[in-house]
Design brief:
The chain is mostly beta strands and about 250 residues long. About 15% of the residues lie in helices and about 35% in strands. The strands form two sheets. It has a five-stranded mixed β-barrel with strand order 1-2-3-5-4. The longest helix is centred in the first third of the chain and has 24 residues, at about 10-30. The chain is elongated, with a radius of gyration of 24 Å. The termini are far apart.
Length: about 250
């Protein structure tokens, strides 16, 4: 009995489906990758970073103040602690650069720039920053500091004990307008507002992460807790207490 050969069209369709499965799976994995700098980043085998000074190169994709990161170094934030030609790190946005950076295992996922050159042509670079600094600036939030900020369980704006005396803590929410500047709308597990935290100050590093997390509706705010709003004034604007924001992140 003779067997019919598969039609050429069916063979082509089958091959195309296989390609879609392979490349589609790869695309999904890429989409699930964490935001740059958000996870603790130990030195990876493919990073080629060693303790001390390293040479890196890449395209600057986000910057604020003295902080920036390059697309070719996902998971690492870079600081230029000093004036950069043209202003601050925002002057590097979209530029191809090469840099000498200091890596310190005490601050995984963080690099201190000692020199930055902007690429002007295939063979020419222009120096825009030099520094002998090797230590991270004071407002950098180290990964190990996360443990000092336990999640606050806030049940109601009247329950002062949920935050008073805690000193430090983190809440999940989003930035909103307050009665005098910015505030944090604190959300419960059902994404309903419990109350607001008045932001007295926010570190440059925390603001840098606010910019990096712009595609997310909510995230965690790491707070140095200050004075409570008087109990008889809380109901009006649902504001509970004052705080300084030390860091923002996805966890």
């Amino acid at each position: 009995m003779m067997h019919k050969r598969p039609a050429p069209v069916l063979i082509a369709v089958g091959a195309l489906a296989a390609l879609v499965l392979v490349f589609g799976g790869a695309a999904c994995k890429k989409a699930e990758a964490p935001a740059a700098g958000e996870k603790a980043a130990p030195v990876k085998e493919d990073s080629n970073l060693t303790e001390g000074v390293n040479d890196i190169a890449g395209t600057v994709k986000s910057a604020l103040g003295k902080y920036f990161y390059v697309s070719q170094m996902p998971g690492y934030d870079i600081v230029a602690a000093g004036p950069i030609e043209g202003g601050d790190a925002s002057a590097l946005m979209g530029k191809d650069i090469r840099a000498k950076v200091v890596f310190n295992r005490e601050f995984p996922g963080f690099l201190v720039a000692q020199s930055i050159d902007i690429k002007e042509s295939e063979t020419q670079y222009r120096s825009v920053f030099t520094s002998a600094e090797a230590a991270p600036p004071a407002d950098v939030f180290a990964q190990k500091s996360r443990a000092d900020y336990p999640a606050l369980t806030i049940t109601a704006i009247t329950k002062s004990a949920d935050w008073e005396g805690k000193g430090k803590g983190k809440v999940r929410g989003k930035l909103v307008a307050g009665t005098d500047g910015q505030a944090i709308s604190v959300l419960n597990d059902e994404n309903k507002e419990i109350g607001k935290v008045i932001i007295d100050s926010i570190s440059e590093y925390a603001n840098y992460y606010v910019k990096k997390l712009r595609l997310f509706d909510t995230y965690w705010f790491y707070l140095d807790i200050k004075d409570s709003v008087p109990a008889n004034q809380r109901a009006k604007n649902k504001e509970m207490f004052h705080a300084a924001v030390a860091f923002t992140g996805l966890y």
